[in-house]
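input
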Amino acid sequence: MDPEWNDSQPIYRQIRDRVVAMILDGLLGEGDPLPSVRTVATDSRVNPLTVLKAYQQLADDGLVEKRRGLGMFVNKGARDLLLAGERKRFLEEQWPEILATIQRLGLAGQLLGAAPKPGEG
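output
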């Protein structure tokens, strides 16, 4: 994990979001182990408790499970759960802003008519 952090959000939240992205992108699949707390802490140059807090949030959300002595593993259905939540959030929070911008700029008709057809440039 990249050790560069955004100051506008707590680091544990950014670590959580990076793991979520790895699950959504298919880099971590059902049953796969998460990188160890120590590995992430060392690579990211953060306190292990920060990583543990991020992982605990993932567990609280039902995305991963703790296996005593083995670490944390991605739960079955985690990607589907995340996709449903991300789609809902996009449609409720981001899409209205995007649609308003499209309408404000008068792009609605252009976007529908200007899209290249399959096989075209």
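quick obs: Helices lie at 11-24, 37-44, 48-60, 78-104, 108-114.
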